[in-house]
Specification:
- There is one protein chain.
- The chain is mainly alpha-helical.
- It has one domain: Zinc Finger, Delta Prime, domain 3 (Up-down Bundle), CATH 1.20.272.
- Helix 1 crosses helix 5, helix 2 runs antiparallel to helix 4 and helix 4 packs antiparallel against helix 5.
- The protein is globular and about 40 Å long.
Length: 119
């Protein structure tokens, strides 16, 4: 994710004003499909086959531990929002954390990286 921080902030504002539940469900589905593809390749159908090429591209460059950390960030964001956290701030934080995880040196395929729950 090579989006500048100010663009992530604008995106967070747009998402937080819209159908947040649907947006987060789409993000969650994306990372589930990427993790599934990392783990089993094309052995199982994707939840969203319309983005199969992009999922395969992401899966080819991310380690399972990296995708698990990204899924954890999305799930933590959903949990925070269920507790009435600030929508815009929560989404912006999620997007920044997702970018940080993807940029980390251990993000590449073939590296497992540690995965621990923060909640």
């Amino acid at each position: 994710m090579s989006v500048p921080s100010h663009d992530l902030s604008k995106l967070a504002q747009e998402i937080s004003r819209g159908e947040l539940e649907a947006s987060l469900a789409a993000v969650l589905g994306w990372y589930r499909d990427v993790l599934q593809t990392v783990l089993v390749g094309d052995a199982m159908p994707l939840r969203n086959p319309g983005v199969a090429a992009a999922v395969r591209t992401a899966a080819s460059r991310l380690a399972p531990g990296t995708v698990l950390r990204q899924l954890e960030v999305v799930c933590d964001t959903i949990a925070d929002l269920d507790k009435n956290a600030n929508r815009m701030l929560s989404i912006e934080t999620m997007l920044l954390r997702l970018r940080e995880i993807e940029r980390a040196p251990h993000a590449g395929a073939g590296e497992t990286g540690a995965w621990t729950s923060t909640s």
